[in-house]
Amino acid sequence: MIAGKWRNLLLATAMFNLGFVIWFSFAPFTGEIADEFGLSVAQLGIVSSAAVIAVPLGRIVIGPLTDRYGAPVTASGTLVVVGIFSIVSAYAQTYEVFTASRIVASLAGITFVIGIQHVSEWFEEEELGTAEGIFAGIGNAGAGLGAYFTLPRIFGEGYVGPLFDANWRAAFFYTGVLALVLGVLYLLFGQAAKSEQKRQATKEGTSVQQFLFIATRYGAVVLSVAYVMTFGLELAMNGWLGTYYREAFGQSDIVIAATFAATFSIAAGLLRPIGGYVSDVVAREEKNILPWFTGRYREQWTFATLVFVCLAMFGMTAAGLTGNIYIAVVAGFLVGTGCAFAEGAIFAQVPAMFPDNSGTVAGIVGGIGSSGGSVYPLVFAAPVLPNLHSGYAVVAATMIPILVLSAWVFQPHIAEEATTGGWFVGEPHAPPNADTVAADD
Description:
Structural class: mainly alpha
Number of domains: 1
Strand content: under 5%
CATH superfamily: MFS general substrate transporter like domains
């Protein structure tokens, strides 16, 4: 059992890490891609947005499918599809084919939901925050250590290989091949749950009515919008920062610009386990760390991290306006730190709140949350803004209503019914069992 849970955690983490490498593999090469297809800075913002456009819906769909069929099946299928279209994008000769194939390849981002569900099927509640933090933290690091740090060094300027002369084409091709290989390994060695009883309990809660009920509960709604301002922001920054450091500060060296961008991604990824671990600790030891939301320990930690993210984004604009790229890099690192802590806190709450519907809720929260990755880049690159630094403050201002909603839901008397109280959809009615029918007869 112990060996099994760590093996499945390893598979989930490897899948998600590679998924993020593929998802953001275009980001370090935006300069070369822009040159080949003749793209402006504003069009690069659209490309960055398009790279996550399929992910929100994909996550919402894959969540209940993973609850129903198990992670090995959905993980394998996703990796194979992603791998094929990553390879297709490597051979694209037109902007239209390139964009369309990258949209499908961006489904690598739904591996997060599959992994969250898979890990929750193997670990007990008191370990969930830490285990999910390890999975998501190392997986998220694929954007920083993989896409931003490793790929530009393997496939740098002047790259010439056996199949491609263009560095970005080689990067897309070989990461696609890795996805195909891992897809086969996941199907062969992955196990859906720690027991058949757990597998059946999860499988049974996958009706359409149950999905709609869960999606409209206070807990699912507030965690979803909180994930917009954290993970959605992380997606946006991962796809944008390389361009930002290059265009706003005149940093033309692809490796240096990518390295600066990687500081954010590494913080947002590797520090995420701390967010989950602290959530586990305050819940286990019943520590009140804020003067509000007494007795709601995980909620207190989550709220504190959300406030930090909002303030750090205002700081990002202030740092950029100094004109000093090193101050801006430090500010970006702090934003990444806030995202890491908040995301770890949020996904410590998801399986703890909904233990038998973790895939469904992870899909809802992850899907809605990732929509920020499509919207925020358009703000960052908006031509109406006076400069490329101002967009961060504009995004921070949009986070304030989310903080207000979080403060309302995290009140003890509301938080107690966060999984049962909600809007629009009533609780599904269970079909009568055999004993009830017999009694009625």
